[in-house]
C-alpha cells in the first residue's frame, strides 16, 4: 500500500517593504517603525512566533535604527537568533535600470552590513523586480548563494499544460532551476500565487476552512511536491499579531496538513529533502517573454527619463571615475577614501529600489531622489578631483619649459585604451587677491591680456612634439584654492579653452601634455593636418571612415566607407499618444504615429575644425496638447489602462526640437544630442534608426552580459508594443556589418520590424502612477527642456566581435584632466597603472577591497559563446595576486607566466574579479 505523503504548509511572515512609492520616504518609514515595534513586542510575548523575513534587504534595519537607535542591541540579538532574517541585498533594486556594478555593490554592501548586524539569509531574493537579469544565478553563486526566490519573469503552466520542448521561460512547477549564460545554476522558487498568498489568515474555524481550501489548492496547482509555500504579508503589510492562533486553528481544521510558522531557510531545506523530480530549467533573462506582454512593467524604463539620466551620471562617476582615480592616487601614496566612497554608493543605492529608479512613484519621491543623486555626485566629484590632483602632483613634468609651459594630465578611467577629442580649461596665469580691490584687479588683468593671441601658443606632448589642438581665450575667471593648512585663497585666472586630440591613452592611466608658447620652443615643429580630419559643408560632413549627409527634414544618411554600407532615414523623430501610466505605455486605439519625416528643418554648420564638425538641426513640431477629458474620468474610475478609450485632442502646441550631429576626427561614430522643449502632455517621443539589416535578433546591453533577444515576440504576445530594457546600448548586425546605438540614461528601446528600425525612447509623459489606486503624478508629464545624448556607432560584424561594445561602454565616461606645474615626480609623464588585455572582455571595476588594502580588478566576458583569456601586468610591485569573487572572497593564488604577466581563463559570460596585493612602502 502506497504511503500517504504529508503536506507541509510553510507560512513565512514578512512584509514587502518599498522605502518610498505611493507615499514619500519618511511617511513610509513611520509605518516601518510601527511594524518593527510590533515585531519586537511579538517576539517577547509570543514564543510560538518563530521568525520574520525582512524582505531580503538590509536597509530596512538601517532606516529603522536611524530613527530608533536605542533598539540596536535588541535587533542584533534577534538577527543572531535567526528570528529576524535580513539581507543579502542592501536594497531591493530594479535589476535592469542600474549598472552591472551597482547590482554587484548592492549585494556586497548588503552582505557586509548584515553580517555586522548578526548574519544574513543566503537567498537571492527578487520578490518584485520588473524582470530578472540573466546573470543573477552567477552573481549570487559567487556570493555563496545557491537559491533564488522571485515573483516575475517566468510563466508557470501547471500540470495540465504541456510545456513546449526547449522553452526556457516557462515551468510546470513553482520550483525550478535557473541557469545563467555562463552555466551557473541555482534552485529557483517562483511566487506562482504572488508573495501574499498566505496573508491575513483567519482565526475563525469556518473562515479558516474556506480560506485554506482555496489557498492549498492554488499552491498545489504548481508545487512540485508536498512542501507548500505561503507568504504571510504583502506590500507594507502590518504584522498579523494573531498568526500563532490562526495556525493552531488551521491545524485543528485540517489535521492531514502540517501548518508550520516557517522561514526560508527551513522551507528550502525541506524542499531539498523532498528531492523534487524533473524540475524544469529556465535560462538567462526572465522578462515575462511567454506572456501577453501587457503587464511586464517594462515601460518604467522610460518613465521620468530625467531620473535615469541622473542615475547614469552618478554611477558612472563612482565606478568609472572616482574609484579608478582613487586607486591611482593610493598607489601614488594617498589614503584611499573608503568610507567616503561607501557613503556615496549607499546614497546612490537608495535611489535604486524598483519603485524609485523606475520612476513609478508619486512626485515627492522623485524630487527627493534628485537630491540624493546630487549628494552622491558631489562626493564622487570631490574624490575624483582630489585623487587626480594627487597623481598629477607626482607626475614628472620637468621636461617642460619651467617658464612658459602649463602642463596638464589627461586621465583615462574607462578601463580600455582610448583616443579622441578632449576639452578643458587651462589657466595661463593666476593672480591671487591682495590689498587691491577685486574689481580693479580684474580690470587691470583683463586689459593686460586684451592682446592675447592664441596663435602664439601650442600644445605639445611630453617629448615636445606638437599635438593637434584648438585654443580659444576665455578671459579672467574667478577661482579659489582651499588649502589644507590655511584660509581660502581667491584669485582671478586668465583661462583658455583647449580642445586637443589624444591618442591611445591607456585604459587605467594617463598622458601628460602642456600648453606652451611657441617662442619658448628651441625647434617649433609645424602641425600639418593629420589623416582622419573632418571636412564639412553643404549639409554634409566626413572623415576617412564615415560620410554623413543631412536631408531637408533633418534626418540623415550614413555611409560607412570601410565596409560600403549605406544607412538612410536615420534620426527621424516619432510621436504617439500615451494614455497609460508610469508602469505601462498605452497608445490610443486607432492612432497613427506622427513623425518628422518630410517636415522642413533649419540646418546649420555651427562648428568646424580639423577635430570635429557639428551640424545643428532646429524645428518646431506641432503636437497634440494631450489626451481628452475622458482620460481623467477613466483614471478617476480606475478603468484598466489596457481598456481605455481616450484619444488625443486636436489642438496643438509647438514643441521645439534641436538636434546636434557631431563627427569627430578618426571616428566611426556620430554623436547625437537632442534638446526637446516638451510643452505637451500624454505622449511619447522616440528617435528612429532605420537599419535595413537582415537579422532576427537584437543585441542589448544588460547586466554583465550582452543579451541576444529575438526581435519578434513569442506567440502569446498580444501587446502591440514590444519595448524592452537596455542599459548602455542596443545593436543590430547581419553578421557582416552592424549599427550600435549607445546612450546615456535612455533605457527603453524597441526594434520595429519595418526595415529593422531601432527606436529609442527620449521622452514619455503620463499623468498617473497606476497600479492599485488613483495617484496623480503631474511631474511625470516631464514638461520642460530635456537634453538627450546618444552615439551611433558603425562597425563590421556584430557589436561583440567587432569590439564596438568598448566604444559604447566608454560613451558615458568623461575624460578627467588636471592642470599641474612644472616639477619632478616619481611617476613618468605617460603611465599605465595596470595594463591588461583580453578578447571580448569588458572592464567593470577597479577599487580597493572593502575589508582590506587589496586592489579589486573586475572584467567580464561579453560573449556568451566563446571563452577568452585575461592577461594583465601591474606596473607596481605586488605581494600576491589571486582570483576573487563579487563579494571579494579570496580564491586561488595566481603566478606570473613566462612573459611576467598574470593570466586567467574565462569561460563564456564569465564575471571575473582579481585581487592584487600591492607591496606599498
From TrEMBL:
InterPro entries reported for this sequence: Gal_mutarotase_sf_dom, GH38_beta-1, GH38_C, Glyco_hydro/deAcase_b/a-brl, Glyco_hydro_38_C, Glyco_hydro_38_cen, Glyco_hydro_38_cen_sf, Glyco_hydro_38_N
Domain of life the protein comes from: Bacteria
Matching SMART domains: Alpha-mann_mid
Keyword terms: Glycosidase, Hydrolase, Metal-binding
GO MF annotation, one: hydrolase activity
Annotated Glycoside hydrolase family 38 central domain residues: 300-373
Family the UniProt entry places it in: Belongs to the glycosyl hydrolase 38 family.
Protein name: Glycosyl hydrolase
